[in-house]
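Re: the multi-chain job from yesterday

Posting the exact lines I submitted so nobody has to dig through the queue logs.
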Amino acid sequence: MTVRAHQVLTSVDAVAGYITYIDLVRDLIRDKEIIATSMKKEVDRVEKAVATALQGKSCAVVSSGDAGVYAMAGLVFEMCSRKEITLNRPGQNRENSGLTLEVVPGVPALCSAGALLGAPLTHDFAAVSLSDLLTPWEKIEKRIEAAAEADFVIALYNPKSRKRDWQLARARDILLKYRDPDTPAGIVINAMRPDETVLVTTLGGLHEHNVNMLTTVFIGNSATYTYQDFMITPRGYSEKYSLGKTGAG
Amino acid sequence: MTVRAHQVLTSVDAVAGYITYIDLVRDLIRDKEIIATSMKKEVDRVEKAVATALQGKSCAVVSSGDAGVYAMAGLVFEMCSRKEITLNRPGQNRENSGLTLEVVPGVPALCSAGALLGAPLTHDFAAVSLSDLLTPWEKIEKRIEAAAEADFVIALYNPKSRKRDWQLARARDILLKYRDPDTPAGIVINAMRPDETVLVTTLGGLHEHNVNMLTTVFIGNSATYTYQDFMITPRGYSEKYSLGKTGAG
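And the result, structure tokens for all chains:
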């Protein structure tokens, strides 16, 4: 958590969030009004948070990771724009009306999980969610194909849920058209939370491991390598810099 | 900054980093050994940091944003692997030898700049650096092309420097083959630092604005829209959820 997120959570009147995330910050918000709803009730939750803010109370909407990456910031803006609410940035107030909205950035799963794997993201990367709940599968498949062909490091979000069990295997098959089965791959479950699991494997061996909704899967680019149990993507392709024992070059 | 980064910086013996980033945390590290080097001396800096750690001192290498995203974590791992140093994770120590290495994740520019623009990243996105210092330009161009065609939101890092002044215009031309000139675009300079500049424009109008090395440029996907001066990417394409005044659906 960032210092700013901590400040905001302890200073607001109300906190809205998925119950699991509320529980993670429960100690900080004991005296607050809590708007907790179950999963898949995001629209409901944001509706209540916006109504609370319109009553003049300050309300934080919590997400895990970064609020902007596959998370709640987008939905808050979508709702405010559909309701035609005037939005102010902090410190700016148009005619004393509307809502003041601050997005507090955070550490996305991509970075917290990446840190546990070593340094998989040092070069260009693409983030793709395998959830086809709100996005047609053909569009997702096209993105995996494009990212694979252009040699992006790839971070796969939402690789599996109880109802979606074939998407990761399909993604792997697409990736294998462009990348070697030995390409390093990483699996991180529950990054920086209890029951954290960190595993470095290969693209070809990806199907041998369990993943779930709280997993981020990383596929290296053509230059990614493993060292001990770390996944490392070098900064570039050209050998314009030299490292190592000899110091030559 | 995260709470963990603050803890680490105040507890280590030495801090290595680019002088500008050292200055940003100078207040926290007054009593530390400082390994500050100028820009483009990263290899030198990491060499010194690793040597310091091998002497038994704890040493932090600072980056702006997230250490894993176009930053120093990769170089530290590259150097340790070339020197065949045994690496331990925190709390794990193989035969009491080698180095213990912890990557402290942070808020990447992608997220801090994204937060200032609104919610540009809510859907699949690709990060591409326009610096061709260590990567052949053809490879960069191929990635922009692939990301554009597959409708990723795109974050462009290092859009311009004193010596690289044509890359952003070329990227824009490629993007215009696949996206409408009216596609929302965002420019953020010095996110969350003094002299912060936040600007929402269009892909077609991108060339009318100044950018520099401390800039992140965002290009929306086909569903991204602007509301007031915010850039918003909706969560999906299907209208499987309803928002707004009527509550119908």
